[in-house]
Amino acid sequence: ERFKQQELRQRSTGSDRIDNPVVDRFKSNQQQQKGLMLFGIALNEQLVLVAFVIALLFGFSLGYFLFSCGN
């Protein structure tokens, strides 16, 4: 019982000890979130780039189609 209280007290103080599973879990979660965020930003940039290229090609083909029909 006394050991449990001691463990709880160590956790509540948020002591940055290597063998503290709560702190370790929190750190790994933070790193994972940061990685996902960075990957998400990179993914969004790629998506925007691809959409821009497709829109550009679509615009050119549409303009060329209308131009050839007009003549």
How much strand content do the residues show? under 5%
DSSP strand tally: 0
Radius of gyration using CA atoms only: 28 Å
What is the SS-derived class? Answer: mainly alpha
- In the predicted model, the low-confidence regions spanning at least 5 consecutive residues are none
Task: Give the terminus-to-terminus CA distance.
Answer: 91 Å
Q: How many strands, what sense, and barrel or not for the largest sheet?
A: none
Number of alpha- plus pi-helical segments = 2
- What is the H/E string? HH
Shape, principal axes of CA atoms: rod-shaped
Mean pLDDT: 69
Residue share in helices? Answer: over 70%
Question: What report would you give on this structure?
Answer:
Helix content is 86%, strand content 0%. The chain has 71 residues and is mainly alpha-helical. The chain has a domain at 46-71. The longest helix has 50 residues, at 21-70. The chain is rod-shaped. The relative contact order is 0.05. The mean pLDDT is 69.
